[in-house]
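re: ur question from yesterday

yeah so i grabbed the chain u mentioned. its 99 aa long if i counted rite. heres the sequnce exactly as i have it in my notes:
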Amino acid sequence: MKTIQQNGASVAREHPGFIAIAGPFAVQHTKEEFAKKYQDQAVGAYREQRKICRAACIVMHGTQAWVIRKKPLTVDATTKAATFTSGKLGIFAGRMARK
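ran it thru and got these structure tokens back, copy pasting raw so excuse formatting
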């Protein structure tokens, strides 16, 4: 059986455009009471992130669950405009700076 490395970077690599926020949660733990507790924690983290990002979701990475959401926008303090942190399309989102 192949072991999958459990870290946020590997989860984000599998889901381009998303960032791992919370995890890992051992939702498939052999002890039922531990599995239930981890499931509750994963759902709580998911609901918290869902308030911030409508695209947030729970994904399985190997045997463990992670909460991911879209990569955030970065705000340039000098122009007061938000730009996307991922992609090489040159997309500029937000309002233009006033001169």
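noticed a couple things. Strands lie at 18-25, 57-61, 64-70, 73-76, 81-84. also Residues 86-94 have pLDDT under 50 and may be disordered.
anyway ttyl
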